[in-house]
Amino acid sequence: MNKNSWILYIGILVFGLVAPFIFPAFKVQLSILCVLIVLATTWNIQGGEMGYNTFGNILFYGLGMYLCASVQVGMFFPLAEWTESGGEKTFVHTPSQFFQGMAAGLVVAAVVPTIVAGLIGYAILGLRGHYFAICTLGLGVAAGEISGGIEIIGAGQGFTTPPFPNIGGLEARGEFFYFLSFGALVLTFIAVRAIYTTRFRLILNAIRDNEDKAEAMGIETMKYKITGWMISAFFCGLAGGIMGGLVGYIDSTDVAFDGREMGVFMVLMAILGGKGTLWGPIIGATLFHFFKEGFWTFFLGWQYVALGVLIVVIVIYFPEGLMGWLREKYPERFGEVVDEADRKAQIELK
Amino acid sequence: MITIQACLDGLLLGILFALIAYGMALQWGVMNIINIAQGDLVILGGYIAYFMYLYGIHPAWGVIVSPIIMYFVGIAIYKLVINKVVDRDLFISILATFGISILFMQLMNFAFGADVVLANSGYGTTMLFDNNVVLPNSKIFSAFISIVFAICLVVYMKRSKLGRAIRATAQNARAAKILGVDTEKVYAATFGINAALCGVAGALISITFTIHPYMGLPYTIRSFMIVIVAGLGNLPGVAMSGMGLGIFEEFADYILGTEFRIGSVFLLLVLILVYRRFKLSRKREYLK
To answer: How many domains, chain B?
Structure first.
C-alpha cells in the first residue's frame, strides 16, 4: 500500500465522518448509500470474483432485517402483541432498551444469515451458471412469499420497528443510523479488502475462470464457495438489520425480500461499476444511487419504467462496467504492461 | 371429493402452464435465452383479451386476436433487445429480460391499473359426481384450446419450411447458416411464436383466472421449472410435468392455504434443482 492510497482512504473516512453535518438534509440518503455500497460489494464476492451470479443475497438481507427487528422487540415485549397492534404505541422502548436491543439484534442479524448460508450453501452452490441464478431468484421470492404468511412477524400488514427513543429532546435519529451504516460500510470495506489480498481471492477467481480445472488442481472448491457465500451473508444480514431500523417499517415483499428492487439493484450496481474489482461496486453504487434519486424525483411515477430501460441499457451496452471500460482505456494504470506494437497489431487484426 | 376436485383443477391448469413452458423451451433451445419476461408477455396477452371484453366483444375471441398482436410485440422486443444478447452469456440475457419484465410490469400498471381483473366468459359450470365437483366450463374450454394450439404448433414445426429451419438452427446454428438458413430471421420468428403462445395462454388465463400487472414472475418460474424437469424439446414431458405442477399447486393451495401458494411454487423450484444437483453429483456431473 503506497502513500497515495493512504491519503485517499483517510480523506474518504474524514469525509464520511463529517458528511452528515455538512449535508444535514441528506442524512437518510447517505445512510441508504452506505447500505447500497455494502450490498454491492458483497454481491461482487459472488458475481464478480467467484462467477456465481446470484439473485439470492436478498434472502440474507431480508432475514437480517426481520431478525434484527424481532430481537429488538422480543427482548423486552411480547412480539405477537407488538405486531398485532400494528405500530400503535402500546409498548415504548426506553433509550437503554432500544440500544441494547439494536446491538443484540444486529449481532443476531449478522450471525444467523451466515449460518443459513452455510447450511444451504452445500445444496445450492452445487448448481452452476444460470441454474444457480434462477434457483437463487426462486429462493428470494419464496422467502418473501412465505414470510408474508407468517403471523408473528406481521404477515401481510407489515412490521413496525421500534421508534427511535427521545433522549431529552435531542433529535439524533438520522445521525445514529448514518453512523451505524457508515460503520458497517467501513467494516465491510476493511474485511473485503483484506480478503482480496489473500490467496482466497485467487481461488475464487480460479473457480470463476474454470471450476473443473480448479478442482483438478486440488482445490476443494465447495469449501471456498461456501465460505465466500457466508462472508456475503454476514454483511448482507448486517446491512438488512440497519436498513430495517432506518426505514422503520418492514413489509415482506416490498421492503425485506424485495427481489424486484433491492435484489436487482445490487447486481446492477456491481455491474455498473465493474465486476471483479474492489472499487467498481463502490463507484457503481454511488452512481446508481444518484441516478435512482434523480429518477425518483424527475420521473415521478415513471421511475420503474426508467429503471427497466436503465437495466437493459447497462446490461447490453455496458456489461464490463466503468472499471472495465477504464481498464481498456488506460491499462497501464491497472498495472498491466502494454506492448504498444503488439496492441497495434491486435487492433489491425480486428 | 376434494381430492378429485383438486386433481381435475390441477390438470386443466397444468395444460395451460405446459403451453407457456413450450414457448420457453422453444426459445431456450433455439436461441439459448432464458426469458424472465415470459410471464409478463402472458399477462399482456391477458389484458388484450380483457380489453376486448370491456368493449363488448366476447373474450374468447382474444384467443385469436391476442396471439396476432403478441407476435408483433415479440418481434419488436427481439429487434430492440434480444438480438443483442443472443450470442452472449446466459446471465446477460437473464438480466436484460429482467429489465424488460420490470418495464412491462410498470407500463401495464399505468395502462390498465393495479386492480385484479378477469374477463367474464359467461360459460357457466359443469357439475360432476352428484354435484360434489364443480368445474367451470371456461377451464375446460381453455384446456381444449391449449391442446389445439399445441397440436397445431407441433404439426407446423414438423411440416413447414420455417419449422424445419427453426429445428435446424436449434441443432446447430452455424451449420444451418452455412446451409443458407437466415438465422436472424429464424430467431425473430422463434421469439415471435413464443410471444404468440404467451398471448394465447394469457387470453385463456384472463378468462379462467384473474390477471394483475405484477403476476408475471410466477408464470416465468413455473415454465422454467417445467422445462428443467422435462428437458428441452420433449413435448410429452412438458405436458406431463405441466399437469403435475398444476396438481401440486392445487394441493398446496388446499393444504397450506392460498397465501403460501406462490411461495410453494418457488420453493418447489429450489427443491427440484437441488434434487437434480445431488443426483448428478453422484456421477461427478452438474446441471448444464
So the answer is: 1
